[in-house]
């Protein structure tokens, strides 16, 4: 998509999506870099506490995620993302405090607060990517946010690598204080961004002058009814197994990273894991948004197939590697350095998992976005996507924190991937349509789509013109709100 000078304004969909991406750069981007270092960036002996903190975080995240979209619809993305910013700095500070003092209470507190914050943040960011984009740009908007998030992770990981570069020694080394300080400062900056740069969805105006939808005044009752309707939507419920496993690779790989490598090599692996997600997500977007690969359903099926081959293939390769090297977490880790012969194979597996982490989620979210264009419904979907993803992470971190073997953890992950992929195929084949435009009364159809529909005979003139009365309805609703406030 091309931006004109007139499109460089706060209420343009692309600009709002980019701002949301910068929020992800500062918040989960830093979190993922810290988690990817293994043991929460601390000593390998901190791995159990780090895993248990993450289990608490993701358990709370799961519950809050079901209502994250509701809160976003009620108070708007700016205040929701502000609340979503608080927990990340507490999480980082808690792990920092534990690594230095040995007292775990602050780490557990930070994990619990971040469980609530993360659900609010991701529900808002997901709602922006899902609903602000036109159908032709759905994967692009998700990938822009993903690149921002992983760009933050990569830069944070590079900072850690630079600091730890010369630390090839003791396996008991943790990330030094400057790493934590830099991370916390960046996370705090996101709070300011959320207050001054984000606007409500009703104020979003596309390049052609249209709004994205007609918004009614939200109420708690309407939102709770919306949650119940979502639960009754069997198409979305069928995707829960696929959503459950979406981030599970992070838990296993970060644990292996902390166990098998020394600190500077963990830092290098972390850079590669995060960076590879950028070209991988761009590649998946090239498939999903590219009309040369066919209509939307066909593109979704191609994307799922590519993702499935890479995902199941790397799981099988890692199982062979674990067996060949007799990896036993009950024994002391080897603290492998990048100069050791054992480094190469483990590094390749770790990096490929980075690509799986991104392309699996983008393919899954693309299928979700294909079910509707209604902004309120997509906000709820976004919250539940992250909430159920968090549940899968919680189970994986519980296995990790309670001494389950790596092969057990991998087997559970493989089974979840397989089942999830099967349901992705079912929903894509039977329920993904080539467009949802002209099917949902409150969604305003872009002018370009209206004209294409007329020319191609996909919609009668009366249907294609429905977008214009909807634009009038936007003004009517705004006038009603102004009258009520007087």
Automatic annotation (TrEMBL):
SUPFAM superfamilies: MFS general substrate transporter (SSF103473)
Location in the cell: Membrane
Keyword annotations: Membrane, Transmembrane, Transmembrane helix
Main subcellular localisation: membrane
Membrane topology: Multi-pass membrane protein
Pfam families for this protein: UNC-93
Highest taxon in the source lineage: Eukaryota
TM spans (from-to): 14-35, 55-75, 82-99, 105-132, 144-165, 177-199, 236-256, 268-288, 300-322, 342-360, 381-399, 411-432
Entry GO terms, CC: membrane
Record's protein name: Major facilitator superfamily domain-containing protein
């Amino acid at each position: 998509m091309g931006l004109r000078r007139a499109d460089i304004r706060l209420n343009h969909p692309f600009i709002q999506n980019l701002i949301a991406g910068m929020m992800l750069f500062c918040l989960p981007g830093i979190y993922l870099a810290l988690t990817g270092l293994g043991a929460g960036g601390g000593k390998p002996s901190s791995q159990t506490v780090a895993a248990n903190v993450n289990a608490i975080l993701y358990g709370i995240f799961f519950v809050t995620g079901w209502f994250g979209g509701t809160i976003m619809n009620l108070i708007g993305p700016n205040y929701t993302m502000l609340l979503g910013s608080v927990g990340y700095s507490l999480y980082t500070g808690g792990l920092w405090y534990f690594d230095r003092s040995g007292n775990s209470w602050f780490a557990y507190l930070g994990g619990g607060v971040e469980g609530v914050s993360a659900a609010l943040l991701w529900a808002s960011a997901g709602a922006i990517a899902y609903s602000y984009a036109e159908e032709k740009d759905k994967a692009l908007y998700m990938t822009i946010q993903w690149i921002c998030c992983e760009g933050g992770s990569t830069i944070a990981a590079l900072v850690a690598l630079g600091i730890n570069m010369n630390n090839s020694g003791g396996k008991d080394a943790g990330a030094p204080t400057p790493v934590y300080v830099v991370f916390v400062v960046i996370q705090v900056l996101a709070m300011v961004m959320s207050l001054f740069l984000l606007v409500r969805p009703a104020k979003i105006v596309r390049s052609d002058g249209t709004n994205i939808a007609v918004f009614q005044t939200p109420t708690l009752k309407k939102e709770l009814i919306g949650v119940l309707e979502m639960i009754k939507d069997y198409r979305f419920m069928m995707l829960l197994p696929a959503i459950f496993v979406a981030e599970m690779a992070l838990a296993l790989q970060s644990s292996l990273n902390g166990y098998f490598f020394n600190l500077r090599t963990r830092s290098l692996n972390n850079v590669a894991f995060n960076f590879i997600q950028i070209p991988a997500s761009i590649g998946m977007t090239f498939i999903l948004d590219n009309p040369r690969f066919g209509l939307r359903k066909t593109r979704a099926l191609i994307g799922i197939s590519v993702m499935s081959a890479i995902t199941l293939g790397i799981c099988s390769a890692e199982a062979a590697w674990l067996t060949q090297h007799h990896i036993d977490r009950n024994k002391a880790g080897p603290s492998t350095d990048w100069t050791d012969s054992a480094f190469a194979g483990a590094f390749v597996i770790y990096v490929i998992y980075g690509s799986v982490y991104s392309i699996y989620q983008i393919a899954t979210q693309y299928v979700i976005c294909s079910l509707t264009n209604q902004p309120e419904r997509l906000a709820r979907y976004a919250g539940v996507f992250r909430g159920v993803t968090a549940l899968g992470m919680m189970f994986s971190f519980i296995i990790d924190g309670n001494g389950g073997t790596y092969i057990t953890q991998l087997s559970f992950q493989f089974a979840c991937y397989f089942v999830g992929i099967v349901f992705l195929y079912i929903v894509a084949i039977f329920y993904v349509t080539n467009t949802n435009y002209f099917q949902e009364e409150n969604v305003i159809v872009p002018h370009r789509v209206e004209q294409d529909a007329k020319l191609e005979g996909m919609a009668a003139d009366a249907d294609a013109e429905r977008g214009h009365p909807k634009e009038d309805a936007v003004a009517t609703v705004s006038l009603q709100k102004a009258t009520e406030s007087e």
